[in-house]
Design a protein that fits this description.
single chain, mainly alpha, 17 helices, 85% helix, globular, disordered N terminus
Length: 508
């Protein structure tokens, strides 16, 4: 009886905390809608007040996500920087390993792990706290099972890269690095469910501290392994894998020991093995749209490896893609914020707030990306020396800098619009758009310009930029023409359908 009373008190306290947080967010959301609907107030006064409310909401969502993604990306970037100082071959090998092999697994695992965010968010909102831990375990089981066949790609990376036409020297060196990344696949399988589990409860700051600590350890161990212990590319890959496992273990220890997770993590459960097929179908659907985008620029690296002077081209592209990936992490944070803000406002029946949120989040992301593009163009002749001391590579990076700047600007718009599409429930439409723009336009055009017109890496990148521009224009057109009143009705209809078809999943 005492235990039941204690549990009741805990549930009551947690519900109050959850309700208090929800009330704050709902109050801000309602305030924004009231400001925008007040047509009697001067236009610029409404704009100023609404922008202030929206920016505060946006900051609370985007800033923590950006920090986590940036820190995790810097871990991989630091490995590339260390290996780049060993020589051009090593830089090309790590570039091919990271962008040609690792990104394949990263995109698939991140996409599948995103299903946890949806289900955990629903369960947390419905106060089905114990189900969050079950979903975490269920997703980890599926991702670990997926990691096993993925491991074959890593093991046979050398013949696969050679089959794709990569030079033997680069393929051989890349394979050595990739062998050291095999433990990282399983770290991904555990990390993304844990990460989404925490995000569903708005627990992001601990992940940021953990990622920062892992970065410090990683940089120290990488320097020792590469320059002091002479472990080479294999050692660099193993240290990178070890650093990702530090993140996984530290986050799991936090879950087990933190009071904030005492109701959502109740221990390991056999219930995690039930309903795996339904969970797999949902996870696979979540992966499709993300993978189509993640693999797009991976193909750019693979195609560039087929050029005549592949080593210099890959080195230059490696530097550009690393910088692009770093700035892209900021856009990923805004992508998540856009998805949450739009879906929240549509679900709350606030069409004006949803439309205004799209404008604010897109503008913020665009301004930051333009600033990054300007910095790249200013330091175009020297920026490559962060990664390698080769003057030939520096000259090649300088030539590619305008394409990098254009990519950064587009990345300030396109990912945010994808987040808006997710918030509106346009995932299937965007998947078709991605296939058409990326793989039916961008890749063929890049191959044509790169090889038939003898433009090399610049031609390949130009063609693939064309695909991204076309996709961005389509998403902009759809977003600008959106009937937000109708989108509110569609959101309410989808919520009713979800309740009817998916609620049993929460009650398993």
């Amino acid at each position: 009886m005492e235990h039941e009373n204690f549990s009741g008190i805990m549930n009551s306290d947690t519900s109050k905390m959850s309700n208090k947080l929800s009330f704050r967010e709902e109050s801000a959301s309602s305030e924004l809608e009231q400001i925008l609907a007040d047509t009697e107030a001067p236009y610029f006064k409404r704009l100023r007040s609404a922008s202030w409310v929206e920016l505060k909401l946006l900051y609370q969502l985007a800033a923590p996500a950006v920090i986590v993604y940036l820190l995790n990306n810097v871990i991989s970037m630091s490995t590339q920087i260390f290996c780049g100082h060993l020589g051009n071959l090593e830089l090309a090998a790590v570039s091919l390993g990271n962008n040609g092999i690792q990104v394949f697994a990263y995109g698939l695992m991140l996409g599948m792990g995103s299903a946890v965010e949806t289900l955990c968010g629903q369960a947390y909102g419905a106060h089905k706290y114990e189900m969050l831990g079950v979903y975490l375990q269920r997703s980890a089981i599926l991702l670990m099972a997926t990691a096993v066949p993925l491991m074959a790609i890593y093991i046979f990376s050398k013949p696969l890269l050679m089959l794709l036409g990569e030079p033997v020297s680069i393929a051989s060196a890349a394979a050595v690095f990739v062998y050291g990344l095999i433990p990282q696949i399983f770290a991904y399988a555990a990390n993304f469910p844990i990460q989404k589990f925490l995000q569903a409860q708005s627990i992001v700051t601990p992940s940021a501290y953990i990622s920062f600590g892992a970065l410090v350890v990683h940089v120290s161990l990488s320097w020792l392994a590469i320059f002091k212990w002479n472990w080479g590319l294999m050692g660099a890959g193993l240290v990178l894998s070890f650093s990702w496992w530090i993140i996984v273990v530290a986050q799991f220890v936090y879950i087990v020991t933190s009071k904030r997770c005492r109701l959502t993590w109740t221990g390991f459960s056999l219930q995690a093995f039930s309903g795996l097929w339904s969970f797999f179908k949902l996870s696979a659907a979540s992966a499709v749209m993300l993978c189509l985008e993640t693999w797009y620029f991976q193909i750019l690296v693979l195609i560039t490896g087929l050029l005549k002077n592949a080593e210099v081209a890959l080195d230059a592209l490696s530097v550009c893609m690393t910088l692009s990936g770093w700035v892209f992490m900021i856009s990923v944070g805004f992508n998540a914020a856009a998805s949450v803000r739009v879906s929240n406002e549509l679900g709350a029946g606030h069409p004006k707030s949803a439309s205004f949120s799209v404008l604010v989040v897109t503008s913020c992301s665009f301004i930051i990306s333009v600033m990054a593009a300007i910095v790249v163009m200013i330091f175009r002749d020297s920026i490559s020396y962060i990664f390698t001391e080769g003057e030939v590579v520096a000259e090649a990076v300088s030539e590619l800098s305008p394409f990098l700047a254009a990519t950064l600007v587009l990345n300030g718009i396109q990912p945010v619009l994808s987040g808006v599409a997710v918030g509106c429930g346009w995932q299937a439409f965007v998947a078709y758009v991605n296939v058409g723009c990326y793989y039916l336009v961008g890749v063929p055009l890049g191959v044509l310009l790169g090889f038939k017109s003898d433009l090399g890496a610049k031609g390949i990148w130009s063609g693939m930029l064309g695909g991204t521009i076309l996709q961005t224009i389509i998403l902009l057109w759809v977003t600008l023409r959106a009937d937000w009143e109708k989108e509110v009705q569609n959101a309410q209809s989808r919520l009713s359908t979800w309740d009817e078809k998916r609620q049993p999943l929460l009650l398993e």
